[in-house]
Structures are given as C-alpha cells and as structure tokens.
Amino acid sequence: MIKIVSMSPLPGEFIQGMLESKGVEGVEVVNTNFCPPEEINNALREAEYIVADFSFHNKIDSKTVELLENTRFIQQPSVGYQHIDVEACTKVGIKVANCAGANTVDVAEHTVMSGLCLLKNIMMSNRTTRQGEWRQMEIGPVELGGKVWGIIGMGRIGKAVAERLNPFSVELVYYKPTRLSADEENKLNVTYRQFFDLLREADILSLHCPLTPETKNLMDADNIASMKSGAMLINVSRGEIVDEQALADALRKGKLAGAAVDVFSDEPITSDNPLLKVDSDNLILSPHVAGVSEESKTRIMNMSIDNLAKFIKGETPDSLIN
Question: Model pTM?
C-alpha cells in the first residue's frame, strides 16, 4: 500500500481517484488538514509521499522533516513554497516540486487589471455612482499609455505582465538581480534599470519577485520614500516583501497615489493590519486571489497529481525545486 498524506484541505478520496485515473493503484491517502498535532505527526512518520498545504498554514519546517523517515517526495499544490524547508528536505534526500507557471496568466491579468483600476479611479467611480452621485468631472481617470511601468522580478509572471502591457504603449523598465539577455529584452520590449533608478522612474511599480531573505521588507519605508511622488504600487508576490505600515503611511500622506495589494504578511488578513485602516478609494485590497482562477486551480491539481504519479512510477516530475 502506497501511503500519501495530504496536508491541504483536499479530500483523500479525490487524490486517490485522480491517481487511479493516472494508472496508480493501491494508494492510501490520509488527510491531516484538520487533525491535532500528534495525529499529524503520526501520519507523517508513515508517509511516503506528501501533498503539502496550499494555504501555507501547515508548515514543513526542519522539525517536521525530522519526522519524515519514509518520505521520498513532497508535492506543493501551488507556486509558492515558502512554508517548506527545502534545504532540510534536500539534506535527507526528499525531493520537492511545486506548480511553477500554473497561475502565470491569472496573476499577470490581475496585475494589469489592478493598474488600470487605479489609473481610472474605478473604486471611487463605483462607490459614488452606487450612492446615486454623479461625479463625472471629479473622478479624474488618466491614461495608461505613455506611463512608465516598472517591474521588479522578471520570471514567468514578470514576463507575462510585460507581454500584456506592450499593446498599451507604456514604457517598460525592470529590475532583477540577473539581467535578461539582449534578445529577451528586445522580445519583451523592456529596458533594464538598477533598483533605485527604477524606483525613482516608475509611475506604476509591480512586484513579481519571490520571498527570500534578500526580498523580505524590500519595499520598506526608505525604499517607498524613494519612489516617484504620485506613483502607484502593486503587490501580487508575497506580503512580507512590503512593509505594510510604511505603505499605509505613504498612502495617507499622499506620497503614493494608489496601491493594489493581493498578498499580506498574515493570511487571512488580521484585524490589526495597518492597510485596513486606510480609508481611501486609492487602495484596492483582495484576498490573495490573483492566482486562483478556476482555470489555474484545475492546472494546479492536474500538475500535482501528474507529478505524484510520475514519481511513484519512477519518472522525473516537473518543476523540481531541489
């Protein structure tokens, strides 16, 4: 019997049925998502394979890895995997994979949508019109064309954002630690900038970098202060990349003209999050929904099950992290 533990809120029967459709028989799936700690630990000690938690609440840290005496493979059913200690897994020979690229289209579309909503002041437009007001000459929408859009992080999502922005006739500038090749820059119509030059130049700045020790609090009070006055910030990467108090202060003081935030330092968002205290139409908040369209959820589930089936059959899964 092949023993699989699902730490995500996915029914064991669902995973078992999907694996059987891929030709994998003799599977026992235990769902530990709502179990007490000792019960989770007991299940993990026997697990050969693990479906990790896409909500990031059930962590696989170094202490958890010590329990995984029989585990060979961990599949993360999302793109992010910051709740998994990959280094600890690597040391004991456990392979880890994620679902890289599964939600690229969704996040890119959400990013462009957020920028347009901020520029068109759509939140005020909706609020006042629903109240029966007619503020046609006060909404003050502006065009995206001709603006400078800065992208921090030029992986799959950053590139997809650039591709979708080119028809709007914007100037695209980007920063990443390792510069793209000249051919890639030409193909995407993007221009490289040093980090602080990008902050000073961008009218709209969108974040698409992973959470690492180097990017944690990347957009702190000082770096937000370095941004162009009246600029707009979009965060669809990880909440911890932005100092939320500093962002709230910059919006209140008018340093930034707007922000759209889809990710938060604590999720679900907590009542003491400083962004909740910004009472303004120029702040758009969403519940980490940029990458969870119906299409991307289907891709993530299919990719996760495909990877499990491949590993069980002795094949190499896609999107291995280590």
Answer: 0.90
